[in-house]
C-alpha cells in the first residue's frame, strides 16, 4: 500500500549530539499537526534515536541514522529509524526483573515508554542475510480532521 503522505528521509550522525536536530526537524515537518501528537511522536522518536546511537554501530565515527516519516493512511503517523552498519542487538522491552531491580534501574525503560505511547511498534533487520543494521518503527493515531490542509503526497524536507 502506498503511503498517504511520505516525507523525504533525513539522515543524522549516529551520536546523541544529533538529537536536537532530530527533534527540531520533526517539529518542522509536522507543523500544523496537533501539538500533543507532535510532542508524543517527538518523545517516541527521541527514544528510538537514542537506542540507535547506544545499542548499535551508528555511534561509531561516521555512523548514521536515517529517519523515515509517513502517513500510511489518513489516521496514522509512522516514524522509522534505521541504523546502518549493524552490530546492534534486537530491540526488546525488558521483562525479566524483580520489582526491586526495576526500582533501581537507571536505563532500559525507554522501550516501555514507546510501547505505552505508540499504537504499535516493531523492528526488522535491514537485510535478513547480513547484519547491515536494524530498522525500528512506531505508529501513532492522528485525527484525520486535524491533519493540516494542503499536505502533499510527497513532502520535501529541505
TrEMBL record:
Keywords: ATP-binding, Kinase, Nucleotide-binding, Serine/threonine-protein kinase, Transferase. The keyword ATP-binding applies. SUPFAM superfamilies: ATPase domain of HSP90 chaperone/DNA topoisomerase II/histidine kinase. The keyword Disulfide bond does not apply. Coiled coil: none annotated. Residues 21-137 form the Histidine kinase/HSP90-like ATPase domain. It holds the Pfam family HATPase_c_2. GO terms for molecular function: ATP binding. Gene3D superfamilies: Histidine kinase-like ATPase, C-terminal domain. It comes from the Bacteria. Signal peptide: none annotated. This is ATP-binding protein. It comes from Nocardiopsis tropica.
Amino acid at each position: 500500500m502506498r503511503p498517504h503522505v511520505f516525507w523525504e528521509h533525513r539522515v543524522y550522525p549516529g551520536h546523541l549530539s544529533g538529537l536536537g536536530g532530530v527533534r527540531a526537524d520533526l517539529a518542522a515537518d509536522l507543523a500544523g499537526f496537533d501539538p500533543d501528537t507532535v510532542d508524543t511522536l517527538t518523545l517516541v522518536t527521541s527514544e528510538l534515536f537514542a537506542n540507535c546511537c547506544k545499542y548499535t554501530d551508528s555511534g561509531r565515527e561516521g555512523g548514521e541514522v536515517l529517519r523515515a516519516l509517513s502517513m500510511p493512511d489518513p489516521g496514522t503517523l509512522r516514524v522509522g529509524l534505521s541504523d546502518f552498519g549493524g552490530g546492534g542487538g534486537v530491540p526488546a522491552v525488558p521483562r525479566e526483573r524483580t520489582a526491586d531491580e526495576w526500582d533501581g534501574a537507571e536505563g532500559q525503560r525507554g522501550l516501555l515508554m514507546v510501547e505505552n505511547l505508540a499504537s504499535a511498534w516493531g523492528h526488522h533487520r535491514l537485510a535478513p542475510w547480513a547484519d547491515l543494521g536494524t530498522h525500528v518503527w512506531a505508529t501513532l493515531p492522528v485525527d484525520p480532521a486535524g491533519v493540516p490542509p494542503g499536505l502533499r503526497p510527497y513532502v520535501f524536507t529541505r
